[in-house]
Amino acid sequence: MDNNQNLKPIFSCNPFEVIKQYKNMHKNKDNNIYTLQEFKDLLNTVKEPFANFCELIYQQIPDEIAAMNFYIITPARLLIEVDSNMLGSPPEFRLRMYLDIFSLLYIQLSSTDIKIKFIDFAGTFLARRIVEINPVMIANIIAEDVNAFDFKSQSNDSCDFTEKEILTFSKEELVNKFKKWFQHYLPFFLQAVSKEPIPAVSQYIHSSKPKYSLDLCSERVSPTVRKAYHALQGLVTLQPCSAKDCIAIQYNRLNPDYQLLHNLCLFFLENISPSHERGNYKTLPFLVDMAHLYELFVAEWLKKNTPQGYFFKQQHPIEISQNRHFNIDILLCDAATGKTIAVLDTKYKAPERGGYTDIHQMISYANTTKCKQAFLIYPKDLPQPLDIKSDQIQVRSLTFSLDDNLDRAGQTFLKNLFLFSEFPQNSYQ
C-alpha cells in the first residue's frame, strides 16, 4: 500500500454540507415529496465518498461473514443500486448499506456524521444462530455474561465518526477506530457461521470474570447463593466419568431425582441421541419441531447445491419498524447483482391447497424484497397445486419430498424451481 496515499483523507469533498443544504431546501415543505432530479443531484455528490468509505470498512470484514453482494458498491453503480426508500424523507436524509451476510451491521451517512451500528435485534439473531450449530458454546457465553448478546445495552453500541474525523482522518486512522470497536462483536459473528469453537470466543469466556446472574435472584436469596459459591469453590472439583458409570446405579427414596439426570448423561457420554423408535435406554419424552427442522434442512441443502450464478439467504431479517421485524425463510438471489429473485417459505403440512394466509404472507414477502416470484414449499404434492398471480407477483407451490432419496428429491425440487420461474432457460440443467 502507498503510505503517502494512506495519509490522505478518504473524502475529497464535504458531503455533509451538501446534505445540510438539501435538508434546508425541504424543511418548510408540507410533504415529503422531492423530484427525481433533486434526488439524483444529491446522490451524484455524495455517492463517491460514501462508496469509498463503505469499501474501506468492508475490506476489514472477514470473508466468512462479509455480505456476498457488497461488491456492487462502486461509485459508478451506487446511484442505481441504492433504494430510494432507504433514504427516508428529505428532512431526515440518510444513506445506509449493510456489511455482513446477515444484514445486521450497517453504515449510515447523515448530515452530521457516519455511524456504523447494528439493527435492533442483531444480538438476538446471532444468539439463535449459535444455538442452532453450537448450543454448548452459547451456554458457556451466557453463563459468563448474561448480557453478552444485548448489544443495545453496551456502552459503545455504535462506532460514530464525526464530520471532522471523516474529513481529516487518514484511512489508517479510520480503519483502526472501526477495528477497535468491532473487535468485541466480531467473535460472535464468526461463531454464528462455524460449528467449531472460535478461539476468540473461547478467550472471551475464559477471560471474563464469572457471572452467575445473581440479579435474577431476590435480594433475600442472592447473599445465600454467593456464600454457597465461595464456600464450595475450593472443595468441588471436576471428576471424569464414562458412560458405564451411569448404568446399574441403585436408587432409593433419597436419590430418585438423579435418575433422569443420569439417563441424559448416558446419552451425551455415548454420543447417541433420543429417537422416536424403541431402544435399550429410557429417557424423557420429547417433541420435535418438525416445521423448523424441515425449514433448516431445505435451506442447508439448497446452500450446498446452489446452481452457479445464484446464492441463497436463510432467515433473512426484515425490519418493518423500530421494534418490529420478521424473518423470511429463504431468499434466492442473483450472484451478479445481489438482487432477490424469489422468496421461498417452507410449510411442513399437507393441505388440499395453499391457504389464503400463506398466500398473502408470500405476496407481502415479495413486495418487501421487490421481487416477482414467490414459492411455498411442501413435503408432499398438493392435490390442488398453487399457481396464482396478484399484482405482478406469481405465487406457486413446489414439493421437496421427504419420502424418497433426499438428494434426488432436492434435485427434482431445484429443477422445478427454475422450470416454473422466469429465470434464464440455461440457469439450471
Cross-sheet strand order for the largest sheet? 5-6-7-8-10-9
Structural class: alpha+beta
**Low-pLDDT runs:** 1-8, 72-90, 208-216
Q: Topology as H/E string?
A: HHHHEEEHHEHHHHHHHEEEHEEEH
Helix content: 25-40%
Q: How can the largest sheet be summarized? A: 6 strands, mixed
Global mean pLDDT: 76
The DSSP helix count reads: 15
Shape: flat
- Report the portion of residues in β strands: 15-25%
| Distance from first to last alpha carbon | 44 Å
Rg, Cα atoms, Å: 27 Å
What number of structural domains do the residues give? 3
Count of DSSP E strands?
A: 10
Question: Can you tag this structure with a few keywords?
Answer:
single chain, 429 residues, alpha+beta, tt1808, chain A, 3 domains, 6-stranded mixed β-sheet, 4-stranded antiparallel β-sheet, 10 strands, 16% strand, flat
